[in-house]
Amino acid sequence: MKEAPYGAAMNGDWQSMIDYYQEHFEIIDCPVTPSKDTVLHLAVYSKTEKQLKVLLEIMKKRAFSVTEEEFLKTKNKFGNTVLHEATFYGNYEAVIFLVERCPELLSVPNEFGETPLFTAAEFAETEIVEFLITSKPGQCVDDDGLLLTIHRQRTEDNLSILSAAIIGQKFETALLLLELDKSLASLKDKNQISTLQLLAEMPAAFESEFPMGIFERLIYCCLPVKRHHEVKSKVKSWCLAKKRDLESGRGRNSGDLGSVSDRNQRGGLLNYLKIPKVCWLKGIWDQKRKHVFALRFSESLIKEDKSLKGVQTSETQILPPQTSVTMSSLTTKKEIPLFTATRRGIEKIVQQIIKLYPHAIDQRDEMNRSILDVAVMYRQKKIFDFVKQQEIPFARLRRVVDNSNSSLLHHVAEVNQNSGVTKPGPALQLQEELQWFERVKEVIPDHYVPLLNDDGKTARECFEISHKEQLKKAQKWIKETSQSCSTVAALVATVVFAAAYTVPGGSDENGKPNFINSPYFLIFTVSDVVSLASSLTSLVVFLSLLTSPIELQDFHISLPRKLIVGFTFLFFSVITTMLSFGATILILIQSERKLTTLLLSIASFLPVSVFGIMQFRLYVSFMGSTLNILKITWKAHSSSLVPCLPWGKKLPRED
Questions:
Q1: What is the Cα–Cα distance from 607 to 581, expressed in whole angstroms?
Q2: How crowded is residue 593: how many other Cβ atoms within 10 Å of its Cβ?
Q3: Relative to the CA of 150, which of 42, 122, 134, 463 has its CA 20 to 30 Å away?
Q4: Which of 188-202, 262-276, 570-584, 640-654 has the highest mean pLDDT?
């Protein structure tokens, strides 16, 4: 290990490193780091090929004993050549230079059985992968245009190059490789995990998991995503040319598919929009590129995945009440991709699989659970609604009971599986859970509601047991919030009550206010009265919350409704209090300057604005949830008011 050149490389002082080896050229092939990296391994981190050229020139001029090819093939502790390191770092110029100097580097694997093409698929940009394949196709593909075996899977764990690209979230690269060699879709690692299963574990690769505001969403929709990498047609042209040469009796080397300048130009097409790396716009654009190519790749992958084409379905039996039935199920060693995508909430993959292979919706796991059970367990509401729209299979799936005799409603109680909570605070989260319970309850047959599982418990009992801790947290939150808000409401009521007896500007001998004719005096009087009434109403509401029993079912409608009323009146009382304060100041100053009036108005309503911003999300969440429930309740109540029809008559069908 040489400290001087290593230290220079760490500091980016490449000239000092070169000067060192010009003086000590005899040790140019000695390891520089504890990982046995040579100076060439370090030189690729300079982002250009310049340092590599200079170092190789030093070796040639000094008539070094090791040949250039042997020097370039030197491996470090992990078996990585300098080309491996160039792909790790994404040094495009260095990759071009190394492949031109020593094409055999493309076929040299490291200790894990990874070729430079394999590592480029996981770490480098798509332009580097495109160059490696098209520059020396004879080193990468066979006569049929398929990837050579050495590049397809690494020997350590049989991970495919397609899965490596997915792990590195290089979805454009994955799409390029799949179009080149469709047989890659069926490859699995030593644990029998396919690329589709791996993709189904990555919800962040899709747009649904990327939170955006209104402005960001607008920018996101307007940004273009074009594709500039295409290798299949180029490799096909090379294969045809090679076959023609062989038929004509002329041998053909693994020639290039374009000059270096052409390849540089193709690489530059990736940046058809010049956006600085530090610009926030580039972050949104990169995310959209990832989402678009992930979606395109998933569509192609599902079409080529042979495991989905040969899937078998299981017979679904209708379970009588209180009867234990053993059902046949589809057993697999690993979770099927459809269930993985459902669990992770990737709606696009679920829709694509069911669209191409409708029978896949009837798949079951080893516990005889269907996709609907998984969607309920993991609170994937969009997937639940999508399956619900498939009327024929949904009619069967809603009656499925798993091997533990648990119905669809029992799975709502599995709070440990919950990954779909979207509301803030324990009270809202518990309300969301209760809403989900009622929503699932509506779709199952009525006689399944009291069904007992193997533990002898109904779905309601399981729900109450599994939500005990959440109920305690919600009760504590409700009490603490009510106490805090009632204190504020009492304080506001005290202030405005005292202000009612302290008339701004004083009164005359008869007790008549001096500024009674001022327009601001009317504003003061009205706002003070309204503020007092609002604060006292809010205080009463929060006191009723403190004295209520706060049972589990109260979190469904009753408690959220009271909180909305309390928050509304408290917020309104604060607004009118500040309005009263502003009117008082304007009465006392009696200024005719518009700027003074404007500044005083802004100062008066600043606390109101801060209060509103801080509580807006919580208030909107309560309001949205409770209003939706009230709408559903009103519809149900309205339907119950329909007069009874004579026996045998039916209601007219609604389209």
A1: 12
A2: 9
A3: 42
A4: 188-202
**String of DSSP letters for 401-453:** --TT---TTGGGG-GGG-----SSSHHHHHHHHHHHHHHHHHHS-GGGTT---
3-state secondary structure of 514: coil
Distance between CA atoms of 229 and 177, rounded to whole angstroms?
A: 11
Burial (Cβ within 10 Å: 0-12, 13-18, ≥19) of residue 143? exposed
The label of the residue with tokens 């590049």 reads 151
C-alpha span between 251 and 264 (Å, rounded): 28
Residue 227: its pLDDT value, please? 74
Distance CA 301, CA 165 (A): 13
What tokens were used for 266? 């193709």
Give the mean pLDDT of 544-565. 87
Fold agreement between 337-466 and 481-639: no
Amino acid at 252: R
Phi and psi torsions of 540, nearest 5°: -65, -40
Q: 251 pLDDT exceeds 70?
A: no
pLDDT over 70 at 394, yes or no: yes
| pLDDT interval class at 597 (50, 70, 90) | low
CB 91 within 8 A of CB 82: no
Chosen CATH of 337-466 out of 2.60.40.10, 3.40.50.2300, 1.10.10.10, 1.25.40.20 = 1.25.40.20
Rounded to the nearest angstrom, the gap between the alpha carbon of residue 200 and the centroid of all alpha carbons in its chain is 12
Report pLDDT digits (tens) over 72-122: 899 999 999 999 999 999 999 999 999 999 999 999 999 999 999 999 999
CA distance 466 to 190: 37
Query: Residue ranges per domain, the chain?
Result: 3-266, 337-466, 481-639
Nearest to 308 by CA among 344, 350, 356: 356
**3-266 homologous superfamily:** Ankyrin repeat-containing domain (1.25.40.20)
* pLDDT score recorded for residue 241: 75
pLDDT-based confidence at residue 341 (cuts at 50, 70, 90): very high
Q: What is the mean pLDDT of the chain?
A: 80
Sequence-separated (6 or more) residues with CB below 8 Å from residue 325: 317, 319, 401
Asked whether 374 and 345 are in contact (CB, 8 A), the reply is no
Q: At what angle do helices 468-500 and 459-466 cross, to 10 degrees?
A: 70
CA 567, chain centre distance (Å): 33
CATH fold of 481-639: Butyryl-CoA Dehydrogenase, subunit A; domain 3 (1.20.140)
What string of H, E and C letters represents the secondary structure of 71-104? HHCCCCCCCCCHHHHHHHHCCHHHHHHHHHHCHH
What are the DSSP calls for 150-195, one per residue?
HHHB-TTT--BHHHHHHHTT-HHHHHHHHHH-GGGGG-B-TT--BH
Kindly state the tokens that stand for 22: 């010009």
